[in-house]
# Entry
Amino acid sequence: MADFFAAFSNLFQIWPLTLLAIGVSLGIVVGAIPGLTATMLIALTLPLTFYMESVNAITLLVGMYVGGISGGLITATLLRMPGTPASIMTTFDGFPLARKGQPGRALGVGITSSFIGGLISWCFLAGLSPPLAKLALRFGPWEYFTMVLMALVMLASLAQGSMIKGLISGCLGMLFAMPGMDPSLGQMRLTFGFHDLDAGLKLLPVLIGAFAISQIIKDAVEIDWRPKMMSVSRRGIIVGFQDVKRHGINMLRSGCIGTWIGLLPGIGANIAAMMAYTTTKNLSKEPQKFGTGHEPGIVSAETANNSSIGGAMIPLITMGIPGSVVDAILLGALIIHNLQPGPLLFTTNPEVAYGFISSYLIANFIMFGLMLFAVVHIAKVMYIPKSYLLSAVLVFCVIGTFALGNRFFDVWVMLAFGLIGFGLEYCKVPLGPFVIGFVLSPIAEEHLRSALMMAEGNFLDVFNRPVAVVFLAVSALSLLWPLYQERLARRQREALAAAEPLCQNDSI
Amino acid sequence: MKTRLVLWGLSALSAAALTLAPGSPWQDGGAVAAYPEKPIKVIVGFSPGGRTDTVARLMAKEIKERGLLPQPLVVVNVPGAGSTIAGRQAVEAEPDGYTLIHWHHQMLIANAMGTFEYGPTDFESVGFTGGGSPIWAVHEDSPYKTWADLEGKLKAEPKGLVEVIGIGTIPHFVGALLAKEVGFETRKVAASSGADRSKALLGKHADIALFSAAEYTKWKGGGMRALIFFGPNRVDKINEVPTAKELGYDVVWANPNWWLAPKGTPQDRIDVVANALKAVATSPEIEEWYKERVLDPYWTDGTQAEKESLELLEKLKEAAKDIKK
# Structure
């Protein structure tokens, strides 16, 4: 408990608070610009945090994460274009409501829901993480392996769009994680005698390539496109207590769905919003109103996408397993700062573990304040010509990637994965499973081989570990789930059909 | 045409500026430039924050503050592949004294394992600026209170205890050297980082793990108990832990902070750097700094450093034969 308060009082100093505010505002702005995502921003900021204290670096990045997911709602509401993939579902009701002459109201509902979603998942993050970390310490190699296996299976079955494409993407990601040092032989494998590959393909060059470079290529293709202006007034932006009460149940439900989806590795804010939206619609007495500017639609989408952030941080800080693509970058950030996320983080570096938790809470407050008072001005950044932005981003990509390991090989890797990412997206293969496969397969491999070394090669040893057996059972069930889900999905697909051309990518 | 003129003008100007600049080699009429006339790059094969990086940065800071060299040392982190990526960068660097690598005996292990084909003789040794040694720890609740307890169990029951190691890294080899000397066998489980090893030991998934003495002080009395120390002598902060040597086993792992230059770097330049490093490493404040971190402060010159490393390499190659079996 003392550590908890220490983290808060550490945060309430000029420098950390400034960093947090910078992070949130940059996040909101980047989130609001279609084509620039929070993933990209965080990946590019990471090299700049090398010489910061680790807690401050985390504070900055968490602020960006919260701002980035929230900023997307501005463009989604005013332009019917998700500023960040997480706000696709917000376009359905936010935009119609704005067009009916209530843009202020539409934004206000979205902003308030985002804030409340953040608070709900913060409660889970703060309440669950410390005990979960204690529990996770008791997890041995078998438990970790089966847990990661479960995550990979769930990822395939829950991923957006076609399961086959999700699987292809996931397997490709796993394949690219193979070259380098074999974790249980200490020998090089699949490096073809090419020593630059001895360290394997590193996470950040791959991520920056797949998410930033591929996006730049895509945006460059349509560089002259500019959104139409829409006049915005702040009228109706303040949402009263009565409204919050009216939407209370919806917020709570969507917040819990969002947190839960966030917890599962690999699927992030966009899926969370979709699940919450569909659930609310299915439970509603007036489902026909959804898609016409119905407030509950905005509420569930925005509550869920924000609450998924807190959810996704739980497995990251307690087990070192990223809950989303952004968390994979945060994992990289911790490792760069020589911190190993996992059950011991609360013991060895409580300031960092609780730093996550406290920054997340305060970031939500800052986001709420900034969005309410500055939304009209932020909305203008959507009209900045892309050519300026993209060239600056590209320069940062190259500098940032080089700085990670001080070698140019990483930059080539980044550029190559930019092309691969662009190609995959062009073929409508989602990138989310690719990255998660890339991140999780080394974790799975290392634990599986440790477990086998411990059991002297006996696979059946897994049945001596009850928790691992439960994870295996859940994995098996998840494989069967898509069959059942097929029917459900058909209905969802109809709802999505309208927004299909807007699905920019699968990143968050 | 115009641009060319401007360029000529600029280069003429900068040449003039160089000649007149204070401290420039031409100013005092000498033909030979004084080394170093530009910053010296120090490659570190690990991420910022670890021991190798911290010591490199400390040395760079002290050399600058004390004015021991006219130009700064600049630390560049090149992590990856058990620090061999950095090693290759150093091997391939120009041997002009402007590139150094700060490393440790992981180089010998990588060589013995066959993942790095270069050895001590492919570099010029500058010297050791101190070093540190590891311990073997068990969980605090473990029934083995002393080394004698553990040794009894290890000898009585081959492969009865689980030892967590990083394959092909220091913990693996130190464990193997001890096992060979004492005559026992453990069941080995892989865990890549120190954090993973502490997780395995504290979560009771393994019985024995190796940690650096500095890592151990974080857990001493709070989850772990060290039974044997691999340093040449006992050290203050963990004075209760006996050394392997006292217990009658010739296993010493004193992992040095090893400074190297690319093969062919002129000896007079190496001497300039070595003198600066030696002055820092042997100063009382730095000795205090080392002891605070359970490290051993000392200075070993390049010739001796290379000799010791070559001797150790032979031992490690022997151990590697068993390991790779």
